[in-house]
Amino acid sequence: FLKPWNDQSLKLEIKSALEQYDLIQANKRLHEKIVEQNEELKKINENLEMLVKERTMELEIQNQALELSRAILEDLTLPVIGVSAEGSIAVINREAESLSINGNDIEIGREINDYFSPKVKEKIISTFQTNTTQTIKDYQISGIAYDIDVTPLSGRFRGKGVILSLRQVEN
């Protein structure tokens, strides 16, 4: 500043310099905060990626177990029919597909009453009530005698359905 100076101009210059300094400091703080938050986001993203990988691996294992369960069900040498609590057929295996009851092939989505006598429906209801496996002896299907085990589902599917396992009776 050259002498003589104007007090008002000097005050404005000093005030402007202080304001600029404050802005620079605020900008530095904001920049540091942004860098810090970006690091946090990077860590969160890495953690999220790891969680996604873990969950994907869990789902792949569960999917393989489900595929294996389905293959086992399909390859069982006795007919198996899964029946919902409402009485509709939810699952059948290959052996059940090959059964012909009263000239009709068993189909998913149809009612159990479409194929079996009221006696079977009564056993299903009784199985729900007692939550124990019950057997119908010598049930006739197309001239062949079967013992039918009516087994309730367990675990989180308890009360949601039963499994009918048909064992051909040896004469």
Automatic annotation (TrEMBL):
Keywords: Coiled coil. Residues 27-58 form a coiled coil. The keyword Coiled coil applies. This is PAS domain-containing protein.
